[in-house]
Amino acid sequence: MATSHASSTSSGQPKKILRVGIIGLGEIAQVNHISLLNNLSSHFLTTYLCDPSPLALAHCSKKVAGGVPKTTSNPEELVASPLVDVILLCNANAFHAPHCILALSHNKSVLCEKPLALNYRDIDAIIAAEEKSQGRVFVGYQRRYAEAFLDAVKEVGGMEKLQYARVRDIIGPNPTFVAQSGTFPRKFTDFKKEDTEEMIAKDEEAMKYALEHDYGVKVTAASMDMARLLASLGSHDLSAMRELLGMPTSVLGASLQHNSPIWSVLFQYPSFPCTYESGINNVPIFDAHIEVYSNEKIVRVDYDTPYVKGLPVTMTVRERIDNGEREGDGYQERTIRKTYEDPYMLEFLEFYCVVAEGKEPKTGARDARQEVDLWKMILRAGFPAA
C-alpha cells in the first residue's frame, strides 16, 4: 500500500531512496521514527544518527535496518555529510529552529517534529532561510495526514452553517502507552553538563522572548509552563483545528490555571463557538477527538495513541435522513475506517513526495506560523495584562 503514495518505477518501487540523518534520539525516535523508516525501506534509508548521548547513539544504531549508520554528537557533521539527503529533527524544541536553518543552509529538506519554533523571530528566520535554499521545511503535524481526518475535512466542507465545534485531547500519561508499544525505548543521562545547560538556556530564552516580545504576556512560571504545553501537546490539536475549521477570530475566555493538569479555551469563529480542552491525568485512556456540529449533521474524528501501531483513526458521521415516510424523521450513523496505516506513516510518505517529486508541503513553515498566532491569542486571554 505504501508505494501508492509516491511515484514509482515499472517495478513498483519508488524512483529514489532518500538517505536520512536523524538528529535527536529520544522517545519519539526510538518508539516510532527509526522503526517506521525501517518499514519504509523502499523509500528511506537511515544513514546517520546524531545525539549528545553516546549511549543513545549506540542503542539506536542497533535499531536501524539496512546497514550500520554513522554516528556523531555534532549536528553540523551530520547535515553536511554527502551520505545524507534529508534531515529528521526530533531533538529538544529549543534546537528545532537553529538545526532547521542549518539543514536549509546545506540545501537539504527537513522534517521537523512540532513545534517548528517557539516564537515569530525564529519561525521568520526559518522562512527566510527556506527562501534561499533548495531544501523544504515539512512540520510533523501527523494527525493532519490521517485518512479519516482528510475525509472529515471534505465532509465538514460540505456541511451547512456550522453551529458548534469541540476539540478535546485529555490523555493518560504517555509512559503507559509507550511501555505497551513493544519498542522498549531507553532513557539516557550521559550528557555533558554544558549540553544540558545550553538546552535549558535556549529554551528559556526562546520562551521568554515569545512572551515578552510576541505575546505581551508577563513572564511567570505559570505563563512559561502553559506556553510549553501549547507548543507540545497543544500543537497536535490546534494544527488540526486550523485545517478543519480555519483560524478563529478571537478567544472569548481561557482557563489556564497554574499547576492544573487540564486547561480549556473558548474560541469564537465568525458564526459559531469552539471549545478546546486538553491536559493529562492518570487514567490510561486516550480521549482525543474533534467534533463539528451543524443542524443536520455531526462529524467526529477520533484519534488513539500513536505509540501503539495499528490503532486506526476513525471518522463518525451522525445525521438526519428521510426515512421514506416522514421527511427528516430518520437517523443514520456511519463510522468509517479506510486504513490501518497510521498517521506517522502517511506523513512520512507525504514528506517523500515533497522531496522526491517537488510537491508543496501542506504543513510547511508558513502554516506553522499560524500556530504561534493561536498561542498568542490563548495566552493573552489566559494571562491578561494587569
TrEMBL record:
One of its GO terms (molecular function) is nucleotide binding. One of its GO terms (biological process) is NADPH regeneration. Gene3D superfamilies: Dihydrodipicolinate Reductase, domain 2 (3.30.360.10), NAD(P)-binding Rossmann-like Domain (3.40.50.720). Residues 18-141 form the Gfo/Idh/MocA-like oxidoreductase N-terminal domain. One of its GO terms (cellular component) is cytoplasm. It holds the Pfam family GFO_IDH_MocA. SUPFAM superfamilies: NAD(P)-binding Rossmann-fold domains. This is Oxidoreductase family protein. It comes from Hyaloscypha bicolor E.
